[in-house]
Amino acid sequence: MAPKKVCIVGSGNWGSAIARLVGFNAERLPGRFEKNVSMWVFEEEVDGRKLTEIINTDHENVKYLPGRTLPKNIIAIPDIAEAAADADFLIFVLPHQFIKRACAPLIGKLKPGATGLSLVKGFAILPGGGIKLISDLISEEMGIPVSVLMGANLANEVADEKFCETTIGARDSEVGSDLKLLFQTENFRVTVVSDTQTVEICGALKNIVACAAGFCDGLKMGDNTKAATIRLGLKEMMKYGDTFYPGGNASTYFESCGVADLITTCYGGRNRRVSEAFVTRKKSIVDLETEMLNGQKLQGPETAAEVNYVLAAKGLEAEFPLFTAVHKICIGELQPEKLLDSLKNHPAHHLA
Q1: Could you tell me the pTM of the whole model?
Q2: Which of 206, 282, 297, 344 is catalytic?
Q3: For the stretch 80-92, what's the b/e string if a residue is b when 16 or more beta carbons lie within 10 angstroms of its beta carbon?
Q4: What percentage of residues in the chain have a pLDDT greater than 90?
Q5: How far is CA 122 from CA 23, 27, 158, 322, in A?
Q6: How far, in Å, are 43, 75, 231 from residue 234 at the CA level?
C-alpha cells in the first residue's frame, strides 16, 4: 500500500501545534505516510516577511506559535488547492466561521478516496437558521467522509509536549487506526471511539460552559460555585446530545473530549480568560477578542448564540438555563451577576 499524503488545512495556534505531532509521525513512519506534510497557511506579513516564507525557512510560526520549532517536513503553502492536491488525509483546523469560505476552492478537486479529520470546535450556522455539525458541513461540501478529534488539548501545552490525551471519533475502524498512528506520540495519547457526533458536540458546547466559568472567576464567586457551574454545564451538554443527537454513548462524555476538555477549558482556555475580562474590565466581547487574542477567534459566545437559536425555536431555553444565561450575558441582555440565578434554579435540582 502506497504511503498516504497528509495536508493540514489551517495554521493558527492549534494547527501549528498539531503540525509538530503530524510532522514527527509522518517522518518516522515512512511506510504509512509521505514524509512531507503540506500545511495551508493564510498568507500574512510579519515584520515585512511572508508568513509562509518564515515557516519554510525558519521552521517557526512566529505569529501563532512563537518559540516552538516546526518539523522541517512541514511545508507551508498559501494556495489551499495546491496544498490539498493528492492528499489522502485532510486535517481541518481553522476557526469554524471560516470553514465554508476557505474550503470553497477544494470542491470537486480532492483525490478520490480522500478522508477528512475535523479539529474544528463549534457549529456551522445554516442560512435559514439552525446549526449543523462541522464534520457534516465539510463532508457535504467536499464529498468525503469526515472523522473528528477533540480533547483536553490546550495548544501551547501540546506544543510543549506536556502529557495529555485526546479522542478521535471515527466510524471506520481502519481510518481510526491510521489517524491514531498519525497523531499519537509518547505524550499525546489517543483513544478512538465510533461515537463521532458526541465527540464533536462536546468540543463545541464546552466553550459555552467555559464562558460561564470565566464569569464566575470575574465575579470572584469561588471554587465551589465554579465547580457547580462546570457540573451543571456538563449536565446540559449531555442533555443537548440526548435531545438533538440521540443514540450517543454516555461513556463518551467521560473520554478526553468530554469531561477532561471541559475542565481544562474552564480553567485554562481563551473563552474563560476573555469572559473573566468581560466582567472585570467592562468592555465588549468583540473589543476584548481584538485586544487579547492576537488574531485568534473566540468560539464560546458565537456557539452560545447558535445553540440559543435552536433552543429558542423549540421552546427549550428553560431546560438549558446555563447555556441561555451565557448567551444573554454575552449580548448584553443579562448582567453577569444574574448567572447565579440560572444555577440556583437549575432543573437538575428539581425533584423528579
Answers
A1: 0.92
A2: 206
A3: beebbbebbbbbb
A4: 85
A5: 26, 31, 20, 17
A6: 38, 39, 5
The pLDDT of residue 352 is above 70:
no
Confidence grade of residue 351 (pLDDT, cut at 50, 70, 90)? low
Rounded Cα distance, 266 and 234, in Å:
11
Using alpha carbons only, what angle is made at residue 89 by residues 85 and 93, rounded to the nearest 5 degrees? 95
Q: Which residue has the cell 432543573?
A: 347
Active-site residue, 121 included: no
